[in-house]
Design brief:
The protein is built from eleven helices and seven strands. It has 256 residues and is α/β, with parallel strands linked by helices. A seven-stranded mixed β-sheet has the order 1-3-2-4-5-6-7. α1 links the parallel β2 and β3. Its EC number is 3.1.1.85. Keywords: Biotin biosynthesis, Cytoplasm, Hydrolase, Serine esterase.
Length: 256
Amino acid sequence: MTALYWQTVGEGERDLVLLHGWGLNAEVWGCMLERLTPHFRLHLVDLPGYGRSQGFGAMSLEQMAETVLAAAPPQAWWLGWSLGGLVASQIALTRPQRASGLITVASSPCFAARDDWPGIRPEVLSGFQHQLSQDFQRTVERFLALQTLGTESARQDARQLKAVVLNQPTPTVEVLNGGLEILRTADLRRPMADLNLPLLRVYGYLDGLVPRKVAGLLDAAWPRSTAEILAKAAHAPFISHPDAFASIIETFITAH
Protein backbone atom coordinates (compact mmCIF):
# COMPACT_ATOMS: atom_id res chain seq x y z
CA MET A 1 0.00 0.00 0.00
CA THR A 2 1.25 3.47 -0.83
CA ALA A 3 1.09 6.07 1.92
CA LEU A 4 2.36 9.61 2.25
CA TYR A 5 5.17 10.30 4.69
CA TRP A 6 3.64 12.78 7.15
CA GLN A 7 5.21 14.11 10.33
CA THR A 8 3.58 16.55 12.76
CA VAL A 9 5.68 18.61 15.21
CA GLY A 10 5.28 21.85 17.13
CA GLU A 11 3.54 23.65 19.97
CA GLY A 12 1.33 26.18 18.24
CA GLU A 13 -2.45 26.13 17.89
CA ARG A 14 -2.42 26.82 14.14
CA ASP A 15 -1.70 24.07 11.65
CA LEU A 16 0.88 24.88 8.96
CA VAL A 17 1.54 22.36 6.18
CA LEU A 18 4.94 22.68 4.45
CA LEU A 19 5.27 21.37 0.88
CA HIS A 20 8.75 20.98 -0.64
CA GLY A 21 9.94 21.50 -4.21
CA TRP A 22 10.88 19.30 -7.15
CA GLY A 23 13.37 16.50 -6.50
CA LEU A 24 13.48 17.10 -2.75
CA ASN A 25 11.61 15.98 0.39
CA ALA A 26 10.38 17.31 3.73
CA GLU A 27 13.89 17.24 5.26
CA VAL A 28 14.55 20.48 3.36
CA TRP A 29 12.60 22.27 6.12
CA GLY A 30 15.05 21.15 8.83
CA CYS A 31 16.37 24.68 9.40
CA MET A 32 12.83 25.94 9.98
CA LEU A 33 11.85 23.53 12.77
CA GLU A 34 13.40 25.35 15.73
CA ARG A 35 12.21 28.69 14.34
CA LEU A 36 8.59 27.77 13.59
CA THR A 37 7.62 24.98 16.01
CA PRO A 38 7.19 27.40 18.97
CA HIS A 39 4.46 29.18 16.98
CA PHE A 40 2.77 26.51 14.82
CA ARG A 41 1.88 22.85 14.59
CA LEU A 42 3.97 21.96 11.54
CA HIS A 43 3.03 19.20 9.11
CA LEU A 44 6.03 17.95 7.12
CA VAL A 45 5.07 16.00 4.02
CA ASP A 46 7.02 14.12 1.35
CA LEU A 47 5.02 14.73 -1.84
CA PRO A 48 3.75 11.56 -3.60
CA GLY A 49 6.70 9.66 -5.05
CA TYR A 50 9.33 11.81 -3.31
CA GLY A 51 11.52 10.86 -0.35
CA ARG A 52 9.72 8.43 1.96
CA SER A 53 6.39 8.65 0.06
CA GLN A 54 7.35 5.81 -2.25
CA GLY A 55 5.14 3.72 -4.51
CA PHE A 56 3.39 6.57 -6.32
CA GLY A 57 3.71 7.11 -10.07
CA ALA A 58 3.75 10.39 -11.97
CA MET A 59 0.76 12.57 -11.13
CA SER A 60 -1.03 15.59 -12.50
CA LEU A 61 -1.15 18.71 -10.35
CA GLU A 62 -4.78 17.97 -9.47
CA GLN A 63 -3.99 14.37 -8.44
CA MET A 64 -1.06 15.48 -6.30
CA ALA A 65 -3.19 18.10 -4.55
CA GLU A 66 -5.98 15.59 -3.81
CA THR A 67 -3.51 12.99 -2.49
CA VAL A 68 -1.90 15.48 -0.10
CA LEU A 69 -5.26 16.91 1.00
CA ALA A 70 -6.56 13.44 1.91
CA ALA A 71 -3.97 13.20 4.70
CA ALA A 72 -4.16 16.82 5.87
CA PRO A 73 -5.78 18.36 8.96
CA PRO A 74 -9.36 19.66 8.45
CA GLN A 75 -8.10 23.21 8.10
CA ALA A 76 -4.56 24.56 7.84
CA TRP A 77 -2.31 27.25 6.51
CA TRP A 78 -0.56 25.94 3.39
CA LEU A 79 3.02 26.90 2.57
CA GLY A 80 4.52 25.60 -0.66
CA TRP A 81 8.00 26.12 -2.05
CA SER A 82 8.53 26.09 -5.84
CA LEU A 83 6.61 23.05 -7.19
CA GLY A 84 5.07 22.76 -3.71
CA GLY A 85 3.69 26.27 -4.21
CA LEU A 86 1.69 25.04 -7.19
CA VAL A 87 0.35 22.10 -5.16
CA ALA A 88 -0.59 24.38 -2.25
CA SER A 89 -2.24 26.82 -4.68
CA GLN A 90 -4.22 24.03 -6.31
CA ILE A 91 -5.46 22.91 -2.87
CA ALA A 92 -6.50 26.48 -1.99
CA LEU A 93 -8.35 26.79 -5.31
CA THR A 94 -10.23 23.49 -5.19
CA ARG A 95 -10.83 23.26 -1.42
CA PRO A 96 -10.73 26.82 -0.05
CA GLN A 97 -12.71 25.70 3.01
CA ARG A 98 -9.70 23.55 3.99
CA ALA A 99 -7.27 26.49 3.83
CA SER A 100 -6.88 29.27 6.40
CA GLY A 101 -4.42 30.98 4.08
CA LEU A 102 -1.73 30.36 1.47
CA ILE A 103 1.98 31.17 1.34
CA THR A 104 3.99 30.52 -1.81
CA VAL A 105 7.79 30.61 -1.69
CA ALA A 106 9.96 31.14 -4.78
CA SER A 107 7.00 29.89 -6.76
CA SER A 108 5.03 31.02 -9.79
CA PRO A 109 1.52 30.25 -10.99
CA CYS A 110 3.18 29.69 -14.38
CA PHE A 111 6.82 28.52 -14.27
CA ALA A 112 7.33 28.32 -18.04
CA ALA A 113 8.08 31.50 -19.95
CA ARG A 114 5.19 32.55 -22.23
CA ASP A 115 4.81 35.41 -24.73
CA ASP A 116 4.45 38.15 -22.13
CA TRP A 117 5.40 36.18 -19.03
CA PRO A 118 8.88 35.72 -17.51
CA GLY A 119 9.92 32.22 -16.45
CA ILE A 120 11.98 29.19 -17.35
CA ARG A 121 12.30 28.68 -21.09
CA PRO A 122 10.21 25.61 -22.05
CA GLU A 123 13.19 24.09 -23.87
CA VAL A 124 15.20 24.21 -20.63
CA LEU A 125 12.52 22.19 -18.82
CA SER A 126 12.28 19.79 -21.78
CA GLY A 127 16.07 19.47 -21.69
CA PHE A 128 15.97 18.50 -18.03
CA GLN A 129 13.32 15.87 -18.84
CA HIS A 130 15.53 14.44 -21.57
CA GLN A 131 18.67 14.45 -19.41
CA LEU A 132 16.94 12.72 -16.50
CA SER A 133 16.70 9.44 -18.36
CA GLN A 134 20.41 9.62 -19.24
CA ASP A 135 22.03 10.81 -16.01
CA PHE A 136 19.58 11.07 -13.13
CA GLN A 137 21.95 12.24 -10.37
CA ARG A 138 23.82 14.82 -12.43
CA THR A 139 20.56 16.35 -13.69
CA VAL A 140 19.16 16.70 -10.17
CA GLU A 141 22.47 18.18 -8.96
CA ARG A 142 22.42 20.74 -11.79
CA PHE A 143 18.88 21.75 -10.89
CA LEU A 144 19.84 22.15 -7.21
CA ALA A 145 22.89 24.26 -8.12
CA LEU A 146 20.63 26.56 -10.17
CA GLN A 147 18.49 27.15 -7.09
CA THR A 148 21.27 28.72 -5.01
CA LEU A 149 23.20 30.55 -7.76
CA GLY A 150 24.15 34.11 -6.85
CA THR A 151 23.78 34.00 -3.08
CA GLU A 152 26.72 34.64 -0.76
CA SER A 153 26.33 31.12 0.66
CA ALA A 154 25.58 29.45 -2.72
CA ARG A 155 28.03 26.55 -2.43
CA GLN A 156 27.07 25.75 1.15
CA ASP A 157 23.34 26.03 0.34
CA ALA A 158 23.68 23.71 -2.67
CA ARG A 159 25.50 21.16 -0.48
CA GLN A 160 22.67 21.34 2.04
CA LEU A 161 20.04 20.70 -0.67
CA LYS A 162 22.07 17.83 -2.11
CA ALA A 163 22.33 16.21 1.34
CA VAL A 164 18.54 16.41 1.71
CA VAL A 165 18.13 14.50 -1.56
CA LEU A 166 20.80 11.88 -0.90
CA ASN A 167 19.76 11.14 2.70
CA GLN A 168 16.30 9.87 1.69
CA PRO A 169 15.01 7.47 -0.98
CA THR A 170 15.24 9.18 -4.36
CA PRO A 171 12.21 9.66 -6.61
CA THR A 172 11.94 7.58 -9.76
CA VAL A 173 12.65 9.14 -13.14
CA GLU A 174 8.92 8.78 -13.89
CA VAL A 175 7.96 10.83 -10.81
CA LEU A 176 10.61 13.48 -11.53
CA ASN A 177 9.47 13.74 -15.13
CA GLY A 178 5.89 14.12 -13.92
CA GLY A 179 6.97 17.00 -11.69
CA LEU A 180 8.80 18.71 -14.55
CA GLU A 181 5.71 18.26 -16.71
CA ILE A 182 3.66 20.14 -14.08
CA LEU A 183 6.25 22.94 -14.04
CA ARG A 184 6.21 23.04 -17.86
CA THR A 185 2.44 23.12 -18.35
CA ALA A 186 0.65 24.49 -15.24
CA ASP A 187 -0.84 27.97 -15.47
CA LEU A 188 -2.88 29.13 -12.46
CA ARG A 189 -2.59 32.86 -13.12
CA ARG A 190 -6.23 33.47 -13.95
CA PRO A 191 -7.94 31.15 -11.41
CA MET A 192 -5.75 32.47 -8.58
CA ALA A 193 -6.92 36.03 -9.25
CA ASP A 194 -10.29 35.09 -7.72
CA LEU A 195 -8.86 33.41 -4.61
CA ASN A 196 -10.48 34.87 -1.51
CA LEU A 197 -7.90 33.82 1.10
CA PRO A 198 -4.95 35.56 2.76
CA LEU A 199 -2.09 35.10 0.27
CA LEU A 200 1.59 35.85 0.84
CA ARG A 201 4.16 35.46 -1.93
CA VAL A 202 7.84 35.26 -0.89
CA TYR A 203 10.59 35.71 -3.48
CA GLY A 204 14.38 35.77 -3.71
CA TYR A 205 15.68 38.81 -5.58
CA LEU A 206 18.43 36.68 -7.18
CA ASP A 207 16.17 33.75 -8.12
CA GLY A 208 17.14 32.36 -11.54
CA LEU A 209 14.08 30.10 -11.83
CA VAL A 210 11.29 32.50 -10.78
CA PRO A 211 12.36 35.95 -12.09
CA ARG A 212 11.61 38.83 -9.74
CA LYS A 213 9.52 40.44 -12.50
CA VAL A 214 6.88 37.83 -11.61
CA ALA A 215 6.39 39.56 -8.25
CA GLY A 216 5.49 42.89 -9.87
CA LEU A 217 3.19 41.33 -12.45
CA LEU A 218 1.29 39.47 -9.73
CA ASP A 219 1.11 42.60 -7.56
CA ALA A 220 -0.97 44.06 -10.39
CA ALA A 221 -2.92 40.89 -11.24
CA TRP A 222 -3.61 39.81 -7.64
CA PRO A 223 -3.98 43.11 -5.73
CA ARG A 224 -5.34 41.39 -2.60
CA SER A 225 -2.13 39.39 -2.14
CA THR A 226 1.07 40.49 -0.39
CA ALA A 227 4.62 40.08 -1.70
CA GLU A 228 7.95 40.00 0.16
CA ILE A 229 11.27 39.93 -1.72
CA LEU A 230 14.43 38.91 0.14
CA ALA A 231 17.20 41.03 -1.38
CA LYS A 232 20.13 38.60 -1.20
CA ALA A 233 18.23 35.32 -1.56
CA ALA A 234 17.78 33.08 -4.62
CA HIS A 235 15.39 30.14 -5.09
CA ALA A 236 15.73 28.76 -1.55
CA PRO A 237 15.32 31.83 0.72
CA PHE A 238 14.53 29.76 3.83
CA ILE A 239 17.94 28.07 3.54
CA SER A 240 20.04 31.16 2.80
CA HIS A 241 18.12 33.51 5.15
CA PRO A 242 16.30 31.31 7.71
CA ASP A 243 15.76 33.96 10.40
CA ALA A 244 14.35 36.60 8.06
CA PHE A 245 12.19 33.98 6.34
CA ALA A 246 10.74 32.60 9.59
CA SER A 247 10.00 36.13 10.79
CA ILE A 248 8.07 36.95 7.57
CA ILE A 249 5.98 33.76 7.89
CA GLU A 250 5.20 34.23 11.59
CA THR A 251 4.29 37.90 11.13
CA PHE A 252 1.93 37.25 8.22
CA ILE A 253 0.08 34.33 9.78
CA THR A 254 -0.22 36.06 13.15
CA ALA A 255 -1.72 39.12 11.44
CA HIS A 256 -4.48 36.95 9.98
